[in-house]
Amino acid sequence: AKAEWQAATDDGQRDRLGRLVDTAQKSVESAQKVVDAATKAYERALDAAAPPHGVKNRTEENQHLRVTARIAGAKQMQGIRAAAYMRAEEHCARYDGTKELSFRYESDDLHISLLFLVEDRRNAEKFQSSLSLWHMHNPLVGLEGKVFVTKQVEVVQRDTTQRVFLEEYVAQEEESPMGSLADFKAAVSSCPTISVGSDNELVQFQCLEKPEGFASLDAY
């Protein structure tokens, strides 16, 4: 319209086209105001829905990561459930419901189901690895091929959860051989760490593997 107005020679035509240009410009300005108002309203809605900076909403606060595993034949091996309690405490695990559901036997197998805070994924994954590599760090316990860790970490909602502590372990009569918490602590303390000094000349001379490949072995 503006181009036609510039090309027009008749005054009446130029006046009519000029009014069209003004109307079009006002329409554009009006539309821009509507867009600006809608944008501000949208931003206000987002601010109202979002929690204050640094504060999580209720859904995020209640999210937990569930780690599950099965240890075959654990009922017939003394100290396995107590050792699982100890590893759970070391990694800041929480009960998945009750203690009985979190550490339960099905036949001779020990089933473990524990929760971790959603922002504590690193501890959850480290706990998975500690179970998966249990037989390597503790070859004398006899767990090779018996620990099965669920690789997928499930996200679940829980209003409240309780930390796992070794002191809460209670021996069960169906465990064979049964051992109390005191028995477990005594077993751990009576089995000193087995260490191989890689800088020892005799070790370096007799070792078939690289000496630095040796690591300390704990009782449990």
Q: What does it look like?
A:
- By secondary structure, the chain is an alpha+beta fold.
- The protein has two domains: 2-49; 59-179, ACT domain (Alpha-Beta Plaits).
- It contains nine helices and six strands.
- It is rod-shaped, with a radius of gyration of 34 Å.
Note the overall shape. Answer: rod-shaped
The top-level CATH class of the largest domain is Alpha Beta
Rounded mean pLDDT score? 77
What is the first-to-last residue Cα distance? 87 Å
Question: Low-confidence parts, pLDDT < 50 over ≥5 residues?
Answer: 192-198, 211-217
Oligomer: single chain
Helix content: 40-55%
Series of secondary-structure elements, N-terminal to C-terminal:
HHHEHEHEEHHEEHH
- How many β strands by DSSP? 6
Features:
alpha+beta, Alpha-Beta Plaits, 6 strands, single chain, 6-stranded antiparallel β-sheet
Short description:
This protein has 220 residues and is an alpha+beta fold. Helix content is 44%, strand content 14%.
Topology:
Layout: H1 2-7, H2 11-49, H3 58-61, E1 63-71, H4 80-90, E2 94-95, H5 99-102, E3 103-106, E4 109-117, H6 121-132, H7 134-137, E5 147-149, E6 154-157, H8 181-190, H9 201-206
Antiparallel strand pairs: 1-4, 1-5, 1-6, 2-4, 3-4
